[in-house]
Design goal:
Layout (H helix, E strand, L loop, with lengths): L3 H27 L3 H26 L2 H25 L2 H5 L9 H25 L5 H21 L3 H22 L5 H29 L17
C-alpha cells in the first residue's frame, strides 16, 4: 500500500502539471509562429503524458502508463515529424501567422473561457470521486474551449489543426482524471485516429500550398472556376 504522504506529493505534482498545461494553452493562443505552435503542442502533449504517469502511480492502473507512452510516441514524436516532413519549409519559416483577433483580445477571451469552464465543471467536481478530478476536469474543459478558440481565430491551416489537436489533448487530460480506469482499447484507438488524421490534413495542406502558394484558409474563398471559352 502506498504511503499517504507519497500520494499527496503525487497529487501536488499533478496539480503543478495541470497549471503548466493551462499556461501552455494560453501560450498557444498568443504565439504567432508556426514553429512556436508546434513546440507548444509538443509541450502540451508531454504534460498530458506526465499527468497520465502520475495518475497511474496514484490509482495503480497500468492503462494510464500505456496511454502516456502512446501519447509521447504519437504526439511528441510522430506528429511533429510528419508535419515537418509533409509541409513545405516556408510554412515554418514564415515570421507571423494571420489571426482574426489580436493577442491581448485573444488572451482575454481565453481567460474568460477558462473561468466559464471552471464554473461549468464545479458541480461535477462536487459529486466526483477523488482529488484528481478537481484538477484535470476544469483544466481539461478549459483546454477544450481554448483549443476551440485557437482553431477559430487562426487563418493558417497548420496552427488551426494544432488547435484541434490541443482540444483532443484537453479531452484526454480531463478523461484520465474523471475515469482513470477507462478501457485501454478506446484510448489507444483514439491516439492512432489522431495520427491518421494529421497525415491526411498534412497532405491536404501541402496540396493547398502547391496550388495557391499559401496555407491561409481565408484565401480559399478567392478561388473561382475559370469561365469556359
Amino acid at each position: 500500500m502506498t504511503d499517504p504522504n507519497v500520494i499527496i506529493w503525487l497529487h501536488n505534482l499533478n496539480a503543478l502539471t495541470g497549471g503548466l498545461f493551462l499556461l501552455v494553452l494560453f501560450g498557444l493562443v498568443s504565439v504567432r509562429q508556426v514553429g512556436g505552435c508546434v513546440r507548444l503542442f509538443i509541450a502540451l502533449s508531454l504534460l498530458l503524458a506526465a499527468s497520465a504517469f502520475l495518475l497511474s502511480a496514484i490509482y495503480h492502473t497500468w492503462h494510464l502508463s500505456v496511454v502516456g507512452v502512446v501519447d509521447i510516441a504519437t504526439k511528441v514524436i510522430a506528429i511533429p515529424l510528419l508535419l515537418r516532413r509533409v509541409l513545405p519549409d516556408e510554412v515554418y519559416t514564415r515570421r507571423e501567422v494571420a489571426q482574426v483577433l489580436n493577442i491581448p483580445t485573444a488572451l482575454l477571451t481565453a481567460l474568460l473561457l477558462a473561468i466559464v469552464a471552471y464554473l461549468l465543471s464545479k458541480p461535477l467536481m462536487a459529486v466526483g470521486d477523488g482529488i484528481a478530478i478537481g484538477v484535470n476536469l476544469p483544466i481539461g474543459l478549459s483546454g477544450l474551449l481554448i483549443g476551440g478558440l485557437t482553431a477559430a481565430v487562426r487563418r493558417e491551416a497548420v496552427p488551426l489543426f494544432l488547435g484541434l489537436l490541443a482540444m483532443e489533448n484537453s479531452a484526454f487530460f480531463a478523461g484520465i482524471g474523471v475515469a482513470p480506469e477507462m478501457p485501454l482499447i478506446a484510448e489507444v484507438s483514439i491516439a492512432f485516429d489522431v495520427l491518421i488524421l494529421v497525415f491526411v490534413v498534412g497532405v491536404l495542406t501541402r496540396a493547398v500550398h502547391e496550388h495557391i502558394g499559401t496555407t491561409e484558409v481565408g484565401t480559399l474563398t478567392a478561388l473561382k472556376e475559370e469561365p469556359e471559352r
